[in-house]
Amino acid sequence: MTLLAVRVSFRWQIHLLLAGSALLSIAGCTRVPEVIVLAATATPAGAIVPTRVPTELPAEATFTPALMLTSTSVPTSATPPPSTESATPSATSEPATPTAAAEPATASPTLTPTLLPTATETPAPGLVLAGMPMALAAEAAVGSFLPGEITDRSPHQIYQLAGEAGTILDLKLDASGDLQPLLLVIDAAGREIARTQSGTASQSELLRGLELANDPYYAVVTRAGGSDGYGVGAYNLSVSAGSPELKSGIFSQPVGYESLDDGVISDAAPEQVFVFDGVAGDIISAQVTVLGSSLDPRLMLSDPLGNVLAINDDDPASGTFDSAINRFVLPASGPYTLNIQRYGETAGDFRLKLTREGQAGPGSPLQAPLDLMASGSIRDDNLLVTDFRAGDQINEAGQELRVQTLLTFHLPVLPAGALPRQAQLVLLGCSEGGAGFAGLGPLSLYLDSYGELNVAGDFTRLRPGSRLLTEANSCENLDVTNVVAAAYAAGDRDIQFRLAFRAANNSGQGDEVRFDPRLMISVGE
Q1: How far apart are CA 470 and CA 447, in angstroms?
Q2: Cβ atoms < 10 Å from Cβ of 294
Q3: In the chain, what are the domain boundaries?
Q4: 10 Å Cβ neighbour count for 63?
Q5: 374 touches 9 (CB < 8 A)
Q6: 492 CB-contact burial (10 Å; exposed 0-12 / middle 13-18 / buried 19+)
Q7: Is 489 helix (H, G, I), strand (E, B) or coil?
Q8: pTM to 2 decimals?
């Protein structure tokens, strides 16, 4: 099952995952329904724990999307601004007309790192992440009491931990406001050493028994979700002498490509962290397989600053409760973290498999980062459900309600002089449950600037100015070249889509299509 965590309403997706509840995923669940109620008030401090909505297990996926893009067009108009009004989806808009095939892209796109300095101090000479020097807030040693603040403009603060090798430290982080804090410790290469436990529903986090090494360690204070996360507020970071006999927190384990690593999730160890080194453009897959237990795992991929890059609870292609992140393109060279959590109080053994599927080299499309805090699936009773899906579900009262997917992508920075020539929305790992397309009809793709999901509103309805882009009768790649080019021309940093079937199937069962959406952009001169 999936537990995502995102800001207030939709930020449930990443907030829950990062805050320790993890990703939100429903298909195939037979447990208590997992939903989140959209509220007009601010999200209270602590993790939001959704319930689950039972659906049919998806059939095994047979669709293998092609990542290379095939069509091009000229920009027409900019993405419409968000509006607070509502409009009901209709079939009056015409699908975009495909244009002639484009010539192959001539430029070699550069994958842009996602790690950005957030402070203005002099860069620390020993801490360089994704090729960029990071700025330090201060030095932290035994006896330090360091106040700070996490804001949307400054979602990370970094401190160098001072002390001789072998020194044992305890780190305590106390937060205020609606900040759900996360404390990480990384080494000079950015590899995660330890973190505070996620999802404690507490604004006081403790990491005990950290032993300093010869090379410097750095404490990263951030929030659930990192840069895309929700919640702001002041905090105090205090450092005291620790003891090797008193150890708490989550300490990382190294893994490598083509490895099989066994682990266990229990009440004593409710999450596990694995760290690996990757190269920009590596196409990686990570699978968490349950080994004969009741464990329902969740898997999250993040960078050294705690920014969540991908999350999954139930692999859409497997029809099981196992988790998988499939064919993800690493945006920068350096270390990455795989965090394995659990749904509820499930526990047991698991096996992690990390694979390098290939390399996105020169001429490959750019993968636009998905804002997991502002993306997710929503049901017609205004409840958020887990993973990415469209179709219908049966609620607790036996009603058949439509489910739609809302997507926010960050448009990647293009190489100098390059333009977006081709763009497709790829429904990776697409699988059908219930009657699928046969019962639901065509899947509609809308350009829909639904705005921020941390505000009150009815996100089940299209916003004025939204328009139908295309329709699909199967798990095919969807051309979005026109609107992506227009967004770049307008200087937009994000683009938002809605995937929906026009009505529930009314068959007395859950019918849906599940997928792992990717926005792939090819560039040229």
Answers
A1: 10
A2: 12
A3: 2-109+366-524, 123-250, 252-359
A4: 16
A5: no
A6: middle
A7: helix
A8: 0.75
